[in-house]
């Protein structure tokens, strides 16, 4: 089960009488941009007290801690909310002996095989000598330190060269070059006794063992660090004491659950419970440098248990560590508006802000105009993922991804711009530092499509003074599209929220079409092919809220959901699918309830909110985010004038109690 806080996550379980946990921290990215775990920890108590009928393992949401109870012994694990540090508190009725082992599979260099390529940013372009380099590990009498320092050459350098940006390389933001990260474990009462080797799941490891005799009470602490020197990692003991940490962190979690909640009965009970369990997982990375990743967050586990075809190290996940698939990532952060977790959104906003300089510099370098071009498969430096960027021939547009799924898709960044603007509307968040991000994202569409129009013809605008959004893309699905509805809806909504009247006057109308006599939203005016399984013609419903409950054009949105043959064919509750959200936003109660019930069903693992990989990786966090949004929309929506709509898609015979936020707090 998960346990965490600040920007730290643990997977905690009991196996063969031992307590084990993985430990992860936001931002621990190696040369390949793989998000590495800090390691695995194993606590053995003499007499195997966790084997018998007294055994109990419990996650207490109210204080964020995991409690493990055995015969005559209690262990409490928690992460501090205000610093990247975890504690393991042992209390025994009788004096007992214990062994704590730090287990690392990175005790040696490990070649990354082609089958493992998705864990980093090289993906299928992985070089033959791609290596996860060994950590430095130094044992002392009652402590051990471990750290990793990235070499000078990283996948960032490869990306810059492949994308033809060497000329401006020195100007570009590089988040992983020479990055240092690691941690220190302090074990009062324990003494170093030596090392051993072994294997767990699919991976060999080396263990550093520490033993204690005749202990009744002790607290082990593990501090994690990024961009600190080795000396600090070896000697650091700073931060709150365990006693203060327990008090302050428990208080934070208690207040966290007062921000918002959903409690339901009957058919809704499991939906509400799993909603809250997933929200806890999001809270574990409340203050990370990097946002909660859609593909497993901090809680990935041995990959062979997610997919038997992946017998790799615990560092593995599909879709990368420092790579962000923006269409997936956005779903993790939209629900934080209504849950009132606005402070947690800053990690996502700040990530885009850090990437902004590179996104504007590449635009100027490739095309000579202003604006920020953020691709769909984007690196944490702000450049397109080098594998997804594709192979370019002489004469190809170097700024465009040569990729059948990703070509001409730049609009996802507008969702994060809208989140920022709505965060201000919800809670008064000071968004001044994000204003250049919003401005540059809008400028890009205005200037780039006038630039393209003048390359293809003479006039930059249509006869009625509108932008020609061609070539464009409706998500990854409707390719080589002319005026896709999802992009137009994004521009209309963000320009209205931002107050960009001049640009708003140049945005074309959302295209419509008639199906069986009913008006529906069209995916675009025309398109060349269908490449994927998304339904961008419903994006004007969510996230852009131009069609829906409390709006005059509700029926057009419903027609699109119910009668568009592609939309109907794609209805699903799997992974990042959003039909549960659209059904709720359109007031289709039975459909919304069915889909959200499917989405919020227990996952296949012991912890109910650890969902299967879906289209990505386990635990599937974009499924969790989409599920949260869907349940929120069933209970609370707003009209354009701010009037609240209660229970717009909730069954009247199911009792529910909730607290959610609306604009104005």
Short description:
With 665 residues, the protein is α+β, with helices and mostly antiparallel strands.
Describe this structure in words.
The structure is a single chain. By secondary structure, the protein is α+β, with helices and mostly antiparallel strands. Among the domains are: 256 residues, Beta-galactosidase, Chain A, domain 5 (Distorted Sandwich), CATH 2.70.98; 110 residues, no CATH class. The protein contains 17 helices and 26 strands. Strands 1, 2, 3, 4, 5, 6, 7, 8, 11, 12, 13, 14 and 15 form a 13-stranded antiparallel sheet that branches. Helix 9 packs parallel to helix 11. The protein is globular, with a radius of gyration of 25 Å. The mean pLDDT is 97.
CATH top level of one domain is Mainly Beta
**Main sheet, how many strands, which sense, barrel?**
13 strands, antiparallel
Low-confidence stretches: none
| SS-derived structural category | alpha+beta
Helical coverage, percent range: 25-40%
Taken from the alpha-carbon principal axes, the silhouette is globular
Number of helical stretches of at least 4 residues:
17
Beta-strand percent range: 15-25%
CATH architecture of one domain: Distorted Sandwich
Radius of gyration equals 25 Å
CATH topology of one domain: Beta-galactosidase, Chain A, domain 5
- The count of DSSP E runs of length 2 or more, i.e. the number of strands, is 26
Mean pLDDT: 97
End-to-end Cα distance, whole Å, is 32 Å
What kind of oligomer do you see?
single chain
């Amino acid at each position: 089960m998960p346990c965490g806080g600040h920007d730290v996550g643990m997977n905690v379980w009991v196996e063969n009488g031992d307590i084990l946990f993985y430990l992860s921290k936001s931002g621990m990215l190696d040369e390949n941009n793989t998000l590495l775990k800090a390691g695995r920890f194993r606590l053995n108590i003499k007499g195997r007290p966790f084997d018998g009928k007294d055994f109990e393992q419990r996650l207490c949401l109210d204080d964020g801690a995991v409690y493990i109870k055995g015969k005559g012994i209690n262990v409490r694990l928690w992460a501090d909310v205000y610093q990247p540090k975890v504690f393991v508190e042992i209390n025994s009725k009788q004096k007992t002996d214990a062994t704590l082992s730090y287990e690392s599979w990175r005790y040696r260099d490990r070649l990354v095989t082609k089958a493992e390529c998705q864990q980093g940013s090289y993906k299928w372009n992985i070089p033959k000598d791609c290596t996860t380099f060994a950590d430095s590990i130094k044992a002392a009498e009652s402590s051990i330190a471990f750290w990793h320092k990235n070499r000078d050459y990283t996948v960032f350098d490869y990306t810059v060269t492949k994308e033809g940006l060497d000329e401006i390389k020195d100007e570009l933001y590089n988040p992983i070059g020479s990055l240092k990260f690691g941690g220190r474990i302090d074990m009062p009462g324990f003494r170093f006794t030596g090392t051993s080797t072994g294997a767990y799941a699919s991976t060999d490891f080396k263990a550093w063992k520490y033993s204690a005799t005749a202990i009744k009470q002790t607290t082990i602490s593990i501090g994690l660090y990024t961009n600190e020197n080795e000396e600090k990692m070896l000697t650091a003991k700073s931060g709150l004491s365990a006693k203060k940490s327990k008090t302050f962190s428990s208080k934070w979690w208690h207040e966290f659950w007062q921000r918002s909640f959903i409690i339901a009965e009957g058919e809704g009970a499991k939906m509400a419970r799993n909603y809250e369990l997933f929200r806890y997982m999001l809270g574990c990375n409340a203050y990370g440098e990097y946002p909660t990743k859609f593909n497993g967050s901090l809680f990935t586990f041995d990959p062979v248990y997610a997919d038997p075809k992946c017998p790799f190290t615990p560092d593995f996940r599909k879709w990368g560590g420092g790579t962000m698939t923006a269409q997936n990532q956005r779903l993790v952060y939209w629900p934080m508006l209504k849950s009132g977790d606005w402070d947690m959104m800053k990690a996502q906003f700040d990530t885009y802000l850090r990437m902004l300089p590179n996104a504007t510099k590449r635009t100027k370098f490739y095309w000579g105009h202003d604006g920020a071009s953020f691709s769909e498969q984007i690196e944490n430096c702000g450049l397109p993922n080098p594998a997804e960027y594709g192979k370019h021939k002489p004469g190809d547009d170097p700024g465009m991804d040569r990729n059948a799924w990703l070509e001409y898709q730049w609009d996802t960044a507008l969702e994060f711009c809208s989140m920022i603007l709505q965060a201000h509307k919800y809670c008064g968040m000071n968004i001044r530092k994000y204003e250049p991000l919003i401005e540059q994202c809008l400028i890009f569409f205005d200037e780039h499509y006038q630039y393209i129009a003048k390359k293809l013809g003479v006039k930059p605008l249509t006869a009625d003074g509108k932008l020609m959004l061609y070539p464009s893309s409706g998500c990854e699905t409707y390719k080589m599209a002319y005026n896709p509805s999802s992009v137009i809806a994004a521009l209309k909504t963000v320009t209205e929220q931002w107050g960009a009247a001049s640009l708003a006057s140049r945005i074309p109308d959302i295209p419509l079409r008639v199906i069986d006599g009913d008006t529906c939203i069209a995916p675009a005016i025309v398109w060349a092919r269908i490449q994927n399984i998304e339904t961008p013609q419903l994006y004007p419903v969510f996230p852009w809220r131009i069609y829906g409950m409390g709006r005059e054009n509700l029926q057009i949105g419903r027609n699109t959901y119910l009668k568009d043959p592609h939309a109907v064919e794609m209805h699903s509750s799997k992974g990042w699918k959003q039909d549960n959200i659209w059904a709720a936003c359109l007031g289709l109660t039975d459909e919304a309830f069915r889909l959200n019930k499917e989405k919020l069903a227990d996952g296949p693992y012991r912890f109910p909110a650890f969902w299967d990989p879906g289209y990505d990786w386990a635990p599937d966090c974009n499924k969790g985010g989409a599920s949260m949004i869907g349940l929120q929309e069933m209970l609370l929506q707003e009209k354009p004038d701010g009037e609240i709509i209660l229970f717009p898609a909730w069954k009247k015979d199911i009792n529910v109690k909730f607290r959610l936020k609306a604009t104005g707090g």
